Amino acid sequence: MRRTCLKTAECPVARSLDIVGDWWTLLIVRDALKGVRRFGEFQKNLGMAKNILSTRLREMVAAGIMETRPAEDGSAHSEYHLTEAGQRLQTVLVALRQWGEQYLFAPGEPMMMAVDKEKEEPIRRLELMARDGRALTSADIAIQKGRAPHPAKSSRRVSRPAR
Q1: Left (φ > 0), alpha (ψ -120 to 50) or beta: where does 64 sit?
Q2: Fold observed for domain 12-110
Q3: Would the pTM of this model clear 0.85, i.e. be above it?
């Protein structure tokens, strides 16, 4: 079954999902944020078929989420490293994690937790904030048509691989 291409959609959520909407992609980012770098490590940790992993990594490199570099140990292997755009997906993963913590686990059920390394305490829950610091709810937010920020004000734009 072929996916619908959303790379020209006016909705930033749709365009984002066009690149990272596959659940394997976010699990690869999760592992890369934990320091996984090599194809074999991703394959072992995720239990993915090699052909699916190869395709996802290739698409992530083409999209500017990951880049390949020579192995740090000097071997002939290549390593996958998150770009700035890939690292910024950590906020998305934390939002998904916190939603899952709240709605998908029974009280007292064991789960993996994100903690502040320095204090060894759970991280603060993400909140939507207005520019003036007010906490916002869904009732406080409207979606309206606008223009993308000027390139000098935003990070490098992520490319979209051809499908």
Answers
A1: left
A2: Arc Repressor Mutant, subunit A (1.10.10)
A3: no
